[in-house]
Each structure stands twice: as C-alpha cells, then as structure tokens.
Amino acid sequence: MKTLKAVIVEDSRLARNELKELLKAHKEIELIGEAENVDDGFDLITKTQPDLLFLDINMPEKDGFELLEMLDEVPITIFTTAFDEFAIKSFEYNAFDYLLKPISQKRFSSSISKVLEKENAIPTINEKQEGLSLDKQIFIKDGEKCWLVKIKDISLFEIVGNYTRVFFDTNKPLIYKSLAQIEEKLPSDVFFRANRQQIININHVNKVVSWFNGKLKIEMNSGEEVEISRRQSYIFKDQLSF
Questions:
Q1: What does the alpha-carbon distance between residue 147 and residue 129 come to, in Å, rounded to a whole number?
Q2: CA nearest 56: which of 30, 71, 31, 37?
Q3: Can you tell me the distance from the alpha carbon of 192 to that of 200, in angstroms, rounded to the nearest whole number?
Q4: Taking Cα atoms as reference points, which of 201, 203, 232 lies closest to residue 216?
Q5: CATH 3.40.50.2300 fits 4-121, yes or no
Q6: Residue 169 region by backbone torsions, left for phi larger than 0, else alpha for psi between -120 and 50, else beta
Q7: What is the pLDDT along the chain (242 residues), one digit of tens a residue?
Q8: CATH topology of domain 151-240
Q9: Alpha carbon distance 83, 239 (integer Å)
Q10: What is the enclosing helix (H) or strand (E) of 139?
Q11: Are strands 137-142 and 97-100 parallel, antiparallel or unpaired?
Q12: Parallel, antiparallel, or unpaired for β 29-35 and 4-9?
C-alpha cells in the first residue's frame, strides 16, 4: 500500500497540532505540509499535489470553500470544523468526510480507514493521460450550494452568457469560467467539443443519429440533446470510427 501525502490547512495552531498528533498513529499517511490561511494553502497544494487535505471551513479573510474554488483539481478532502452536526449537514457539498472539533482518536481513525479503503478501490491512472484524470474531483459552487464532483461524472458543459453550466446527476450549476478554460483541462479522449457552445462526455452518450446537412445529433443518458456542428461531426465520426 502506498503512503498517502497529506496537508493541513487550518488557521488555529492548536488545531493543527491536534491533527498532527492524531496522524502519528497512522503511518500510511505522511504529512508533507501545513498552512494557516487559504492563500498559503493554495500555494502549498499547488506545489506538493497531496492525496489528502484536512481543511478548516471557517477561516479569516477566505474560508475553506474559497480555497477549493481556487483549485483546478481537489484532493480527497476531510473538513475539520467546530460547526455542530446539524449545521454541517445544511451544506450541499459532497465532501469525503468531516470531523467535528474537538476530534476524537476513534472518529479520526474511522475517517482515515475510509480514505484508505477509497484509495485501494481506485484503479491506477495512466500518468500519460492528457488532462485531468477522470477520478479527480473538482469543486463547484453556485450561490450557497457546493459540490465536489468527479470529472467522469460530468456529462456536459454548456456556455450560458459569461458562465458555463455544468451537468452532473440532476444538477446544473453555473460556474464563472469560459468553455475554453475548462476544455484545456479536460482529458481529450473522453470530452469532445460538439459545437461552439457545448462539450460532451462521450461516456455519457446514449444515442447518435444522423442530422441535417451532415450534422449529428446526440442524446445524452440524462436526456439532453446536443447537436454536433458539421465540421465537428466529421471529427467525431473519425474519433469513434462511427
């Protein structure tokens, strides 16, 4: 079993020390750095690319959610928070786990066991793959709602004015990024630019039919219909040997 690299982003020195003490009982986790604010945390994560992030939600100036918004890809994230259980459940994110302060050794060990179980279940990713790996997750925030979403679970990206709508499950939040910014980060063998406005995940395609003027029409598993431009239809056919 490989050793997982972890970082702590937490404004309280006492809380950071508590986490470091708890980690001493888990040799499978190597702490490679800590930060006391969001900006330092962003620099640390970008530089070290950890597997695991212990993240405080409530920090001065910028909170934990703002840090996740800054990252192109998000490590496995365990929130550490002083919020009570009812408050934490009001957030609409898909965090891997959360630990309520003060953190007990038993609860901490349970969370680490879940992390290790998850890591052992993930197949090895080909390092030569272009773009983000499909099992990596990104953070999406739309208003008060937040999600951590795996790349492979996103079926469609669509331009809406200055925003991009992201389709996954039954959710369709808007993010303030251009389609071009998003496209350059995606694995090109799975995500396809259907037209000027949309990028599709070919693993979520349910049906392909011939359309007018040499175009193709796509029906996604979720029911959305996407028209592939004539130029892109030729490329799509060639790519999928259609």
A1: 25
A2: 37
A3: 5
A4: 232
A5: yes
A6: left
A7: 678 999 999 999 999 999 999 999 999 999 999 999 999 999 999 999 999 999 998 898 898 889 998 998 889 999 888 876 544 554 555 556 888 888 999 999 999 998 888 777 654 433 334 557 888 888 888 887 888 888 999 999 999 998 999 999 999 999 988 998 899 889 988 999 999 999 999 999 999 999 888 899 999 999 999 999 999 999 998 877 65
A8: OB fold (Dihydrolipoamide Acetyltransferase, E2P) (2.40.50)
A9: 50
A10: strand 137-142
A11: unpaired
A12: parallel
DSSP state of 171: B
Sign of CA dihedral 54, 58, 60, 61: positive
Among 148, 8, 144, smallest CA distance to 74 is for 148
> Counting Cβ atoms within 10 Å, is residue 62 exposed (0-12), middle (13-18) or buried (19+)?
middle
Tokens at 225, concatenated:
């219909």
| Backbone torsion region of residue 49, taken as left when φ is above 0, otherwise alpha when ψ lies between -120 and 50, otherwise beta | left
The domains of the chain are located at: 4-121, 151-240
Contact by Cβ (8 Å): 30, 59: no
Structure tokens given for 61: 């100036």
**What 3-state class would DSSP assign to 24?**
coil
Distance (Å, whole) CA 66 – CA 48: 19
**From the CA atom positions of the chain, what is the Rg in Å?**
20
Long-range pairs of 207-214 with CB within 8 A, sequence gap ≥ 24: 208/242
Q: Is 50 exposed, middle or buried (0-12, 13-18, 19+ CB in 10 A)?
A: buried
- Residues contacting 193, CB < 8 A, separation 6+: 183, 199, 232
